[in-house]
Amino acid sequence: MTELELKYGCNPNQKPARIYMEEGELPLQVLNGRPGYINFMDALNSWQLVKALKKATGLPAAASFKHVSPAGAALGLPLTEVERKIYFAPEGELSPIACAYIRARGADRLCSFGDWAALSDVCDADTARFLAGEVSDGVIAPGYTDEALEILKTKRKGGYNVVAIDPDYTPAPIERRNIFGITFEQGYNDLDISEEMLQNIVTANKELPQQAKHDMLLSLITLKYTQSNSVCYVKNGMTIGVGAGQQSRIHCTRLAGNKADIWWLRQHPKVLGLQFVEGIRRPDRDNAIDLYISEEHDDVLAEGVWQTIFQVKPEVLTAQEKQEWIAQLSDVTVGSDAFFPFGDNVERAHKSGVHYIVQPGGSIRDDQVIATADKHGMVMAFTGVRLFHH
Questions:
Q1: What is the pLDDT of residue 321?
Q2: Which Pfam families match (predicted)?
Q3: CATH of domain 22-165
Q4: Catalytic residue positions?
């Protein structure tokens, strides 16, 4: 198949729409549903991310994409008991690829609502069962077990989008796109991100354990497929905060840092102890948790409201309790797709437990940025490589 007609483009008024190959066959197959223009943009960007992660780390990888940027990405490491609870994972042993997607989606459950899922490995029944219970638009993977495909075909009244892609497909070395009737052309970004990029450690502290190296690679590869400007916080093989598409670097750092704080606050004993009414829908539960953590907690604790969400009215999570809990977050890695122009980015990252930083370097104020990192005993690597994506 060289061409696939789509219902419409980014918006219903943008017709006609299609995806096609100028030469050869499309490297993908729609196994179920009818993916749209944005679905395929998410699918192809997210597939590149998880394929690169698998290559860089040797571990299964997954991503949760929304509007051409990752809401989360993760490696297939076992789930802790706390992670099982905050990601609402099923009990029992789970496959590595299922763990990868559960962690990727759990990074930011609000932003993952209605996501496109990407898997580096064949989708198995464990992954399909979890996907079936979540609000999601579709999934791309190099293949599906028969059981997984049957499960996914029951989702969304049989309309769930399932795409298989040829894992050996390599794009043409030159890519083109049209904007306002004008054709842009550039070389495909085939930059190979590996541990060799992490050797230029510019801080006094140069201790970089293997886990931090994996987290740096995860951060960089996520940034490679995130709309710029972008900053990414990572811990234990999963993103915990992605700030995308901001015009200011510090706003990226704050946005991603705030998401990292929320991820950590979801592990606070008061949040883990929330008792929800029977039958509450997952999105309603996720929204309630977010409001409870945020300064809008009165919206869910008001009389006449909390009874529809909680079995027992929760105690307020105070500002001091949140501050004390966030202060316990540690060993976080942060990556940036371009250099940090000022030390304020490092200061903001420090507030969210960042100990490791990876960024291109090259600012006229690199000395200030390095000095700020040294003040907090951080380890910072300069890659010399910018990762803008538009």
A1: 95
A2: AICARFT_IMPCHas
A3: 3.40.140.20
A4: 66-67, 229, 390
